């Protein structure tokens, strides 16, 4: 198995560790945390022992592991991934991988020059259920007339924000907000299924901290539009849809997809059989490991192409809305 170091000890990291254990793709060997106590508690919680802990990032990257998984706050992805690549590590970085296109371009070029892999962990596009969506879209390509993707989920940190605290996900300092947290999933939906849009327009609801609590995004293609509704300050149970004239493919969610239906002009609803893993990160773990072990450059470059477009769309959306991150000021 591929040796793995991790940065970030949140719930999503725990889910990824479970995925690599289930798929036997990577083996956790190293952990970086600002405090040894926090790292040890994380390892105890996931029943891992004999794992090297570092509280100094330079020492961490000098350790003999192959790949690093980064799940720190958004604004830290770039400097941490850059340091990893400089130390010849493959990088799996949670989406969004960077705060700006400039940052992504630097990592992209550096990874190629060092001969290591840079993966943006957009887990859902690797799942079998998403592959089924791609099959349906490909089969009915000439009939596509648009799509609506919705992903709104009340953040567990929003109450803390309302109470006067300053959670990372609701600050410009850490490149937070609805677009860069949940919207990235729906932008991936559009980019993987339909390609790069011709124009991008984002209309956000800005909260007092200066980030978008929710918003609506329009991606304009030559023959149709994709409308995206996202939010971290409210819940929505609205389905997502892809339109084929009189017929519609219905997704139960734009980000965490669990069920598909086909609806015809007579409102006949047909269930589309799909496979869904209990851990949605299993599929991406397998894909990343396969690319590394088999040196599958074709699959890798295809994923990288998606990541480049997604990061460009996210920045275009922010620019259209006048949303500014602290990272925009760094040159």
Automatic annotation (TrEMBL):
Domain called Gfo/Idh/MocA-like oxidoreductase N-terminal: residue spans: 3-119
Residue ranges that the Swiss-Prot or TrEMBL entry lists as coiled coil: none
Molecular function GO terms recorded: nucleotide binding
Domain of life of the organism encoding this protein: Bacteria
Pfam families in the record: GFO_IDH_MocA (PF01408)
Xref: InterPro entries: Gfo/Idh/MocA-like_OxRdtase_N, NAD(P)-bd_dom_sf
Name used for this protein in its record: Gfo/Idh/MocA family oxidoreductase
Organism in which the protein naturally occurs: Companilactobacillus halodurans
């Amino acid at each position: 198995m591929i040796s793995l170091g991790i940065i970030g000890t949140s719930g999503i990291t725990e889910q990824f560790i479970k995925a690599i254990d289930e798929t036997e793709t990577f083996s956790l060997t190293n952990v970086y945390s600002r405090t040894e106590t926090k790292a040890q508690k994380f390892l105890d919680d996931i029943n891992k022992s004999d794992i090297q802990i570092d509280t100094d990032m330079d020492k961490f990257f000098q350790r003999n592991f192959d790949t690093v998984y980064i799940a720190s706050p958004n604004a830290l992805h770039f400097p941490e991934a850059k340091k990893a690549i400089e130390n010849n590590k493959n990088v799996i970085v949670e989406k969004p991988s960077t705060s700006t296109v400039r940052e992504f371009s630097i990592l992209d070029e550096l990874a190629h020059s060092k001969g290591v892999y840079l993966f943006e962990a957009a887990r859902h596009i690797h799942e079998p259920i998403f592959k089924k969506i791609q099959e349906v879209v490909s089969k009915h390509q000439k009939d596509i007339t648009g799509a609506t993707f919705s992903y709104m989920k009340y953040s567990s940190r929003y109450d803390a924000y309302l109470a006067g605290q300053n959670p990372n996900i609701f600050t410009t300092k850490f490149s937070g907000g609805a677009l860069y947290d949940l919207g990235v999933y729906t932008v991936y939906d559009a980019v993987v299924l339909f390609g790069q849009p011709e124009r991008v327009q984002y209309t956000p609801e800005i909260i007092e901290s200066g980030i978008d609590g929710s918003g609506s995004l329009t991606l304009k293609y030559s023959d149709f539009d994709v409308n995206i509704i996202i939010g971290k300050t409210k819940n929505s149970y609205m389905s997502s849809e892809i339109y084929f004239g009189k017929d519609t493919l219905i997704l139960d969610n734009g980000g965490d997809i669990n069920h598909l239906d086909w609806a015809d002009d007579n409102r006949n609803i047909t269930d589309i059989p799909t496979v869904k893993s209990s851990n949605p990160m299993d599929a991406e773990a397998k894909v990343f490991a396969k690319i590394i072990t088999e040196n599958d450059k074709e699959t890798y470059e295809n994923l990288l192409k998606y990541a480049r477009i997604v990061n460009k769309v996210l920045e275009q959306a922010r620019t259209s809305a006048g949303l500014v991150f602290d990272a925009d000021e760094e040159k």
